[in-house]
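Quarterly update from the structural biology core.
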Amino acid sequence: MSEFLEIEQKFDVEPGFERPSFGGLASVSAAAPVLHHLSATYFDTADGRLAASKITLRRRTGGTDAGWHLKLPEGSGARREVHAPLGTAERQVPEVLAARVAEVTGGQPLGPIATLDTERTVVTLRGDGGRVVAEVADDLVTGRRLPADGGQEGHSPGKVLRWREIEVEVPTADPALQRAAADVLLGAGARPAGHGSKLARVLEG
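Predicted structure, tokenized:
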């Protein structure tokens, strides 16, 4: 298991949005875009205790960090992200992660509540010496809310939502770079995200 601090900004964009190059940022170079296909199932209690506490728990395949991800709020614009191996169980939350949220769940079982499929184009921004200073993720997302039984017993998933959004994630807080990247995106027509997470958008949709 591993964990780190996730610091990111999220932006809503239209389907036809033209992603800027970020080449104008001082002392930053942009690598060639890399495409990933991600598939995630999100878990919560039947009464949404994790969502109410702004906690997300998912099992995701694809990309460079496949596995179980638990995201815990940690101040403005940051979350503590805990990773556990993918394993073979698709619907059983690893005990080590369930224990981290036991006080929130109060003993209630955790089950699937939503699925998200994402076509992600990643542009890595590097600074002096090739150091990674930010990652820009351009996401085409298809999300579905699952029925209370997690899609069992023949029940159909909820309506399908599709949207595009962009995330800018930095390994360590860098206010100047974060502001500059945001200005580039806003200048190209992006908008500050209307939801704190993809899951929140699906659950509210």
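The first strand starts at residue 2 and ends at 13.
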